[in-house]
Design a protein that fits this description.
Elements lengths: L34 H15 L5 H16 L26 H7 L7
Length: about 110
């Protein structure tokens, strides 16, 4: 189910309008990803994989992983995830532990 766009902390996501090139009738499925999931995945990718990507890239990966888990019984598939941004521009946000704490996305277990 696709819900109307709404504000997100992840820049470029959940804008208050849909561009003309978005044709909802051709979308078969969608997965909801929270800001917190995206920010924590961005940090995880740096720590575990050495990939410094931005929150929207991490959001794309979380969405792909959620979708894959929900379709495990389907035939084997390959999933391509494009990372549209670099994490360098988000040092004061996604990679700032204090900012994440203030927003409620970080705990000592994160």
């Amino acid at each position: 189910m696709i819900t109307p766009p709404h504000p997100y902390e992840v820049e470029g996501v959940g804008e208050d309008m849909l561009p003309d090139n978005v044709h909802l009738r051709v979308i078969d499925d969608a997965v909801r990803v929270s800001d917190g999931e995206a920010f924590l995945m961005a940090r995880r990718l740096v720590k575990e994989e050495g990939l410094c990507v931005g929150p929207s890239s991490a959001l794309a990966l979380v969405g792909a992983l959620k979708w894959a888990r929900s379709h495990q019984s389907d035939k084997a598939r390959r999933i391509l995830v494009l990372f549209p941004d670099h994490g360098r521009a988000y040092l004061s946000k996604a990679f700032n532990q204090q900012w994440l704490k203030e927003k409620g996305y970080w705990s000592e277990d994160s």
